[in-house]
Each structure stands twice: as C-alpha cells, then as structure tokens.
Fold this sequence. Notes:
Layout: H1 2-36, H2 52-61, H3 68-83, H4 88-96, H5 103-139, H6 142-153, H7 155-159, H8 163-169
Helix pairs in contact: 1-5, 1-6, 2-3, 4-5
Amino acid sequence: MMNAACEQLYLKLFKQILDQLYMDYNDYLILLKNKLKWFTNITPDRVEVFSIDDATNLGAIIPNLNHPELLLSDFELLRNDIKQCNDMNTVVDMLKNRQNIYPRLAAVYNFLLSLSITLATNESAFSKMNSIKNYLHTTLSNKKFASLMICSVENDMLDKVNLKCIAHES
C-alpha cells in the first residue's frame, strides 16, 4: 500500500515538473517573439518604415547600442542601399565594407544573424519537450509513468543495479 502511495506521489510530481518545464519554455518563446518583433523593419523590403520606436527598442535589446537617434540616422543614410539587397546576408556583406562608418548598423545585423541560431535551438528544445509531455500524458499507463518517475527520483539506487543480470532474467 505504501509503495502505491509513493508511486502516485512520484507520478504527480513528475507531471507537475513536466508542466512547469513546458510553461517555462512557452514563456521564454513568448518573450523571444516580443523582442524579435523589433527586428522586422530592418529587412530590405521593410527598411522604409524603420522608425525611432524600432531604434529605441533595438537599443534596449542589443548591448552597447545607446543612441537610437544615431541608429535611425544610419538607417536613413543607407536605406536605399539596404533596399537594393536581396536578403539579410547581402546586407551584412554590404556592411562589411562600411562597418567602421556604420558600426551601429553592423551591430544590429550581426546580432540578428547570430540570434537565429539561438532561437532555432530553443524552439527545437521546446518542440521536443512539448512532444515528450504530450506523449507521456496520452500514451503511458500510470504504472509505466510511475516506474519512470521512480527511476528518475531514485537515480542513486538505479546506478547500483546490474543491468546485465536484469537483461538475462527477462
């Protein structure tokens, strides 16, 4: 009877942990999406509508980008050149020759291009966590779920188990 109560407790705790991880990842993705929206107007097809609000918010996100007015001025000076670029990589290539003249623009585009790798990694981890959570909630029986939970919680005892003996007994 005591063993069943422990299993139920472990099962409940494991579900709570999964739910908390899911909510944390979800909150993190929402935060990222809210921060990334300020980068939409730096693309070649939208640079025409880049505003002081965009510059101010980018300054709050990107380290050492302290003067939104100067960033806006840089965008205004290079707006036509940026519009002629096909994609963001072309913009970065164009800025390589001018990064000493426009260091704020170079910082913005370099920050954005390095951010995509981080975001993709986080979305991938979130997607995997979501899949695991859904799978565990829908397909595992309570007994299997409890066994997994016990393995996780009693990890120190599990390390002492001889897996070869268990494999031969099965």
